[in-house]
Amino acid sequence: QVPLVESGGGLVQAGDSLSLSCAASDRTFSRYIMGWFRQAPGKEREFVAAIGWRGETTFYADSVKGRFTITRDNTNNTMWLQMNSLKLEDTAVYYCAGKLGADSLSVLTRTAPHHWSLWGQGTQVTVSS
Predict the structure, then answer these.
(1) Is 43 a residue whose pLDDT tops 80?
(2) What is the rounded distance in angstroms from the CA atom of residue 72 to the CA atom of residue 78?
(3) Mean pLDDT of 35-59
């Protein structure tokens, strides 16, 4: 298991930008496909974005495509989610997640939470009007 710790959440206004980070303490981080999920009050956890372990293949939920960017740095065992043009509906607790698998789009697109074996504790993002 690779402990994951998210940071960077906060309160912002609609239209603002925010960057989340996910730090891993284990060098095996580089073997994991990494992703971001979010969960709003009263709603199920939903997929946001994923990135292959090489950092070249990415996949986004339609709701964030063109606004959010997922990146990673395997040297520093860190992943980021740059969120631009934030909307009220982006308000949620954001979780980083990881899973083992081939660095391929077919694996990245298995977005249901039960496909992911590692989870962070979450960081709150609140977007106000």
Answers:
(1) yes
(2) 6
(3) 96
